[in-house]
Amino acid sequence: MGRITLDKVTKSFGETEVIPPLDLTIEDGEFTVFVGPSGCGKSTLLRLIAGLEDTTSGQIRIDGNDATQLPPAKRGLAMVFQSYALYPHMSVRKNIAFPLKMAKMDQAEIDRRVDNAASVLNLADYIDRKPGQLSGGQRQRVAIGRAIVREPSAFLFDEPLSNLDAALRVGMRMEISELHKKLATTMIYVTHDQVEAMTMADKIVVLRAGNIEQVGSPLELYREPRNLFVAGFIGSPK
Ligand code: ADP
Ligand code: MG
User: Fold this and answer.
1) Which residues cross the membrane (predicted)?
2) ∠74-79-82 over CA atoms, to 5°?
3) Whose alpha carbon is nearest atom 20 of ligand 1?
4) What is the ipTM of this complex?
């Protein structure tokens, strides 16, 4: 579970076409990074996959099923927001449980999932604290926990570390990579940071003005950048 395909997907805001026809396949279990300069359409592309924006044309399939018209909650994906989206008055447990409560899930199952997420994320000791009593990294883990409990077929991250300081960012990168290994679930990760892309990705999608310039592993992009834009962006010598 977790294979996502985009078939001639486009997105326009008014007269402006932000995503020209775009084809892309994300394989089950892959860690895919969308990278490119600010304004190139990374967030828009992620939001189209999540269902937070409607496509102008084209088709999005998730695990073979047409998801183009499905609302976000029916797509089986979980978007990880930045940690400042936590509820300050709720404990870690309640923050993580929140999406399941909203879905009216059975309390015993909620507890099981929250305990499991807390254990995977090393949050068990902090479960009764409020977000204000946590470090930035711990808060970010709570935000990820909220996605894990939904047991999604894919996780979508939009620059989740951009409001953390540099040292913490490096640690969280490693934690998210570890999490990917533990869960073996598809992850799509948006960043404008080349280093993040090169160190975390199985597959990198380089975007410029809504166009895919190149798709490949970090090594492929480094060794054989298709053009000067990719070379310049990835930092290899071509
Ligand atoms: P990135 O995440 O790569 O920085 P975005 O996907 O946020 O880029 O934006 C891509 C382009 O689409 C930008 O030119 C942006 O101004 C435009 N855009 C994004 N969202 C909207 C919107 N809701 N209405 C109009 N234009 C938008
Ligand atoms: Mg963005």
Assistant:
1) none
2) 150
3) 44
4) 0.98
